[in-house]
Design a protein that fits this description.
Blueprint: E1 8-13, E2 19-20, E3 36-40, H1 47-55, E4 86-90, E5 99-104, H2 114-127, E6 132-136, H3 140-152, E7 155-161, H4 166-174, E8 178-182, H5 186-197, E9 203-204, H6 213-217, H7 219-228, E10 236-240, H8 245-259, E11 268-274, H9 279-286, H10 312-321, E12 325-329, H11 331-345, H12 351-365, E13 374-379, H13 388-394
Parallel strand pairs: 5-13, 6-7, 6-9, 7-8, 10-11, 10-13, 11-12
Antiparallel strand pairs: 1-2, 1-3, 4-5
Helix pairs in contact: 2-3, 3-4, 7-8, 8-10, 11-12
Length: about 400
């Protein structure tokens, strides 16, 4: 089988600066328990030549293979994920004069951006000899793991909060993965998953608890760069934030593009959270180094119901490194945004994906975004598993 040309070098912990072997199974930092990140040999890679080669390859996220961790084509597990459309939206109420576009990851093979992370993480897990995987999930990550595990002929278990939409539970089962339902939020699902799986010897694919899901997520940043062009990059990207790997991944992509001499200044990253569960925005507003758990979390957006994201220092670092910030929106505003995006723009978006659209007028009002700027809203998932009418009733 052909070599992918991956330039993977090592794993690094940004909390304690420990380096780990990237060619052995790894989860979190063995020294301090924080997240590990993949480093690549960039020093002798010609950025412009690499970008030229990338544009000649098939339109999937694997076009960036030199900066992804899978070493052999034999282990690449793909459903055609990546290179999702970037669509201009035209005029958006409350954001007059702002050039607004939307990146639509609702068109991914499993219906959400989670396909990016799971495609890469499952491929790397198979390459490293792992056979039994599990993940606690609010829904989309579980569906993605189930699909890619099936594609790779690996076993998978998915721990889901009981309130997870039924179509997502059914999809996980259809792909052949086991569903374990848990009372509470993804926090309780994670606690039960790690307790139950300890005796099995299975591998945890939780957000930022292994090094490679974020590598798949960083392709969002690569695609925004490639699709926009270096001279027409958005000034800001507005992103719905639960576990935060999308923000961490995009910031990592921008750092690698800068190291290759392809980007000067990255877009500002803005985290959007519901006002009933906003630990990241609160920490950004308070200048805190990490989040504190959110008490009594509530929201209609299951992917944003993350009261205490793991390795939150890296999420805050990602936002601050781009001079960005955070903002909250109400559940009612999310429901209204879902309807507006459907009726005004013909777009089916999840509650999570509607949050950036709902947040844009607030960012303009606070002068965090200005007329004349280019702003990209990120839709992380399709709205098909959700009943708009039921969501509207739930918020009155």
């Amino acid at each position: 089988m052909a070599d992918t040309g991956s330039r993977l070098k090592e794993l690094e912990c940004r909390a304690c600066c420990t380096s780990s072997d990237a060619f052995r199974v790894a989860s979190v930092c063995p020294t301090c328990g924080h997240a590990l990140f993949a480093n690549y040999r960039l020093e002798d890679l010609d950025g412009r030549d690499w970008l030229r080669k990338v544009t000649e390859r098939p339109a999937t996220l694997w076009r960036y293979r030199e900066l992804l961790p899978v070493g052999s084509d034999e282990f690449v597990t793909s459903l055609g994920e990546g290179f999702t459309p970037l669509l201009p939206l035209g005029d958006v109420p409350g954001a007059e004069g702002v050039a607004v576009s939307l990146k639509d990851d609702g068109t991914m093979p499993t219906g959400s951006f989670k396909a990016r992370g799971m495609a890469v993480a499952v491929s790397r897990a198979k390459e490293l000899g792992l056979r039994d995987l599990f993940v606690p999930s609010a829904g989309n990550a579980g569906v993605a793991l189930a699909a890619y595990a099936a594609r790779a002929s690996l076993r998978a278990r998915v721990y889901l909060p009981e309130r997870t939409p039924e179509p997502m539970k059914q999809s996980v089962r259809l792909y052949g993965a086991e569903v374990v339902e848990v009372q509470g939020t993804i926090r309780e699902a994670g606690e039960k998953a790690r307790a139950d799986e300890k005796r099995r010897g299975s591998f945890d694919l939780s957000t930022l608890r292994e090094p490679y899901r974020v590598e798949g997520k960083k392709t969002m940043g690569f695609e925004v760069f490639e699709q926009s062009g270096s001279h027409d990059l958005p000034d800001a990207i507005v992103y719905p934030t639960g576990g935060g790997t999308g923000l961490v991944g995009m910031a990592k992509a921008f750092a690698e593009l800068r190291a290759l001499g392809l980007m000067e200044r990255p877009p500002r990253l803005y985290a959007v959270q519901p006002d009933g569960c906003a630990p990241v925005v609160r920490a950004l507003d308070e200048g805190a180094p990490q989040v504190t758990p959110w008490g009594e979390p509530r929201t209609i957006a299951p992917g944003l119901l993350v009261p205490s994201p793991f390795s939150s220092e890296r999420i805050l670092e990602a936002v601050r490194s781009t001079r960005g910030g955070g903002v909250t929106v109400t559940d009612a505003a999310i429901v209204s945004a879902m309807r507006d995006l459907a009726m005004r723009h013909g777009l089916s978006v999840s509650p999570e994906g509607a949050a950036p659209y709902a947040a844009l007028p607030k960012l303009v009002d606070r002068k965090l975004v200005s007329p004349g700027e280019r702003v990209l809203l990120y839709n992380t998932g399709t709205g098909l598993p959700f009943s708009w009418e039921a969501l509207a009733r739930s918020v009155g």
